[in-house]
Structure formats: C-alpha cells, structure tokens
Amino acid sequence: MSVLFEPLTLRGVTVPNRVWMSPMCQYSADAEGPNTGAVNDWHRTHLESRAVGGVGMVMTEAAAVSPEGRITPWDLGIWNDTQADALAEVVASITRYGSVPAIQLAHAGRKASTEAPWRGGKPLAADHALAWETVGPSAVEFGHYPAPREMTIADIDRVVDDFRSAAIRADRAGFEVAEVHAAHGYLAHQFLSAASNLRTDEYGGSFDNRIRFLLRLVDAVREVWPAEKAVFVRVSATDWTGEERGVDSEAWTPDQTVMLADRLTDHGVDLVDVSTGGNVAKASIPVEPGYQVPFARRIQNETTMPAAAVGLITEPKQAEDIVSTGEAVAVFLARELLRDPYWARRAARELGAEIAPGTPPQYERAF
User: Fold this and answer.
1) Which one of 27, 97, 145, 186 is the catalytic residue?
2) Are 169 and 159 in contact (CB under 8 A)?
3) Which of 187, 213, 230, 262 would staple 270 via disulfide (CB 3.0–4.6 Å)?
C-alpha cells in the first residue's frame, strides 16, 4: 500500500491523495482592461491538466487581494467579482476531474510592481505606465528594489480587510481550501522577519508583535471561511541567514517558525505549507533534493500542526518516503509538475497504487 495515495481529511475536506500542486505564478493575466487579473485560457489549461493528471489538490498561483498586492501587473487577482466568477469556472473543472480546488491569497508588499521574470523581473520604473507605489512594514529595500513606503495602521487595517473580502469571494467561487501566503519575502513574511520589519509599534520588535499582522490576516480569513473548509498558511521556515547553521541571526529562523506553527493552531489553521527563503536578497541556500523537508519535519515533531513539504521533490519513492515516515502529511510539487503534468499517475503506477476517482477512460490504454 502507498501512503502517498491515501486520502487525507482536514476538517470537512477530504483530499484523495497526498500529491498536491504548489502555487506557481504564471504572469499571464491581462494587466489592463475589464479582465485585469482574471484567469484566461492559459490558466484554465494549466490548472485543469494537473487535475486530469491525478494530483489530489490543485492550488492556484498567488491571487492578489488588491491591485497593489500583485507581484507583477500580469498576476491573478481576487479583488473583484469578475475575477471570482472566472475562477469559479476553473473550480468546477478541477472538481469534475477529482481534485480539491485551493487558492492562495497574497500581497507582495515591497516585492511588488515588477516585470515578468522572462523580461528580467526587475522593479518597474516609477514612471512606467503599469507601475505603482510599493508598501512594507518598514522602509527597507529588498536587494536592488526601491525602498517601500512604511505602512500606517490604516494601511494594515485595509490589507486585513482585503484578505477578508478575498476569502469571501474565494468561498463563493467554490474553493475548498484557502492558503494565506506568508512566505518568499512577500508582505506577511516581511512583517515576520526582523530583517525587513524595523517597526517600533505593536507590529514590530518582539516575536509576538512581528506575528501580529499574520495572525490578523488568518483571523480575518477564518472569520468568513466556512467552518467545514480548510485554511492553510505558507511559511518560509528560515531566511537562510545563519541560525539553521548554528549562527546567531536577527532574521526569521526555524525556531520561530515552530513557535508560529504552534500559535496558528489556536487561530483555526489546519496545515502549514513549509517552504524557505525569499526575504533576504543574498541568502546562502544549500539547494539539494528535499532540502526543505527537515523544516516540515520539525513542525510535525514539535507541534500538533500538520505540515506539508515542498522543494526539489521529484521522484515517487522520495515523496512516498517523506509521507510514510511522517516528515510531512503531504508533498507539494511545483516545477516537477511543469515538466510532467501527469507525474501523479506515473508515481501511482510505480508505487503500485490507484488514483481515485480512477483514470479518465480516454487515457486508460496508457495506464
């Protein structure tokens, strides 16, 4: 029996297997006009094909909760009903093909207003027609990015309201899981890390103060998200500035991540999606297969919060071992699913498992 292809139930949501599609920005939405930020044919094909491919959960790329929350002008959004209605059509297809539809709610903070990666990914010039002012917990720049405007309390309250409104729209669109993005150097991560948060008010300084913004986001989502549906939080477990190598660090650390995961349990979060990095431009990251799995393992071992692992998980046996040994309850695949949309079906065959609800009849002769 393959544990990787056993179902997992979180609240009232049963995911048919433990192979999940990680959020991956496509930077392919309209940047202007009536369909700004809405899914189009590219997104539909991208998301639906992974559901046909057998993953248990399909999570959208980061959906910005406001226009200013986008990474690029070509990001998906969920700040208006047009965007939500377009997503509802995709949700229906994902569900039809047997996968659980999930959405990541996000705000890019100081890493916003940039070009698409394949056009260099650099910050847009201030006079660019599609550029906007970026914000962050403090006026601290990220690498070569311009320093953001430090957020006021009114700004913070507005973003919390934006997450609440986005969650309402996501629920109406039919998503069964909402994930709050607090990783990869985007806004919530910027508040968590002392490398980017120099505030001296109730949102900065101590650990309790630096996690306050994220807890408010989670509470706002959970307040309007149905009790039977699941809420996830994606975290970067470390800024890779030293502590994980035994060196003192003032940035975000694995120990703080474990403490945060424990707190999130009391705020209605059902799973932590564990990644790393993204908030310090010159971090030293020892990239190798499964290099982020130990951070998920710590949450599994040291708290009651379930954790999912991501990062260079490429082989079926590797994924099976991660789940069967309890290092994580599930694995998120990203680039491997770009290379092979049908990875889950290949993995099931290699592990002698079956995928519910079964292979589409059109594809049976291949499996």
Assistant:
1) 186
2) no
3) 230
